[in-house]
Amino acid sequence: MELVHGGDWAGYRAEFGRDALDFSANVSPLGLPAGVAAAITAALSTADRYPDPLCRALCARLAEAEGVAGEHILCGNGAADLIFRLAAALRPRRALIPTPTFAEYAAALHTVNCDITYYILYEADDFALTDAFIDAVTRDTDVVFLCQPNNPTGRITPPLVVKRLLQRCAENGAVLVVDECFLDFSAGRAALTAKAFLREYPNLIILKAFTKLYAMAGVRLGYALCSDTELLDKMRAAGQPWAVSSLAQAAGVAALNETAYADAVRALVAEQRPMLAAGLRALGLRVIEGSANFLLFRAPADFGQKLRKKGAVVRSCGNYAGLDDTWYRTAVRTERENRQLLRLMKEVLA
Predict the structure, then answer these.
(1) What proportions of the chain, in percent to the nearest 5, are helix, strand and coil?
(2) Residue 282 main-chain phi, psi, to 5 deg
(3) What sign for the dihedral angle of Cα 248, 249, 250, 251?
(4) Does residue 17 carry a pLDDT above 90?
(5) Any alpha helices (H) in the chain, and if so which ranges?
(6) Is pLDDT at 8 greater than 90 in this prediction?
(7) Could you tell me if 235 and 108 are in contact, meaning their C-beta atoms sit under 8 angstroms apart?
(8) Which of 13, 53, 113, 177 has its CA 20 to 30 A from that of 165?
């Protein structure tokens, strides 16, 4: 079975009998924070009880950390869970999605038979999203998705463009979903987030997750921010009632206290991303300048399979709408791992 996403360590182990140098999943290379691991262990004593379905303690802590009202937060089993809940709650007839972008937006919309208009982002523009995307929002548009920064391109849409897009959506009765799951890797995240628009625009939904920054992919924890409490209630009702385990809730509360860890991850990515990009370009590869903890690059179509046999895995992007089998995405990891990856890439390309 061909999986949609990266991070299939189990499939690699089953095929080769060992673990790969895995650059296919964009999570923190520093591993699970010690405080989070301790919180999960301590929460094991509560595993015989149902978790709090309203995630009260976690939402209270998130409200403090994000500077939003507690009633404007909905927690879920990762951001993907919330995307599917949103589709089920809204049941939109028509959606607008820039492409290439995260596959789960379309996957969720297909479950409710939504017609999707794909707005093509072009390599000639380094896959930047411009004001022209705003004009594609019409009276027929029910929901618009925007990944900020975009996965897999790493490009950030300027806040003024986001605001104009939000206004256009409001004027046409459309909901704007801004996925900020990778934004916390940016040093300029405070100026780039759409949170400032939440109160004024109830048609705005912001998605965030603990998955990437805190290396909690296996814990499964995400949350949505929206001032439309009625919509959040519909999203809550659109899935099973205990979406977030007690262990995940405890992990989330602990993660929000890991400020030194988060700063260390950001510093590492800020240092290593340009070094990795330079290394890829030195190998003769086309690299898109991104602002996240990953890089999109172009290589021969058989590059990924050859690299896989060498013991390293990057994300093939051929299944992204708008890209083909010559596009790949690599995570940004530690200097030692990045250098090891570049060495293996050089052997493959030789």
Answers:
(1) 45, 15, 40
(2) -65, -25
(3) positive
(4) no
(5) 9-16, 34-43, 56-66, 79-90, 104-110, 132-135, 159-171, 189-192, 229-237, 246-255, 259-282, 303-310, 335-349
(6) no
(7) no
(8) 113
